[in-house]
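Deliverable D5.2: sample structural annotation.
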Amino acid sequence: MNWNDTKKKAIAIGVQPGKMKKAELIRAIQTAEGNTPCYGTNRGDCPYTDCCWFEDCAAEYRKTMA
């Protein structure tokens, strides 16, 4: 999901993006939706394959491990 779509999703569920960084905003959305705020922790074994950030999450994890 691109940044603009992520911001629109946040606003639609009552999360104000403000100056949040991408990972912060996605975790805030996950929390607001009642999900585990796990963005950026996908080591390749994440069971939530239907998550709209699944691929991006794995890439984020790889960036933090580099």
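Annotation notes: The longest helix spans residues 54-65. Residues 28 and 34 are 10 Å apart (CA to CA).
The annotation will be released with the project's public dataset once the embargo ends.
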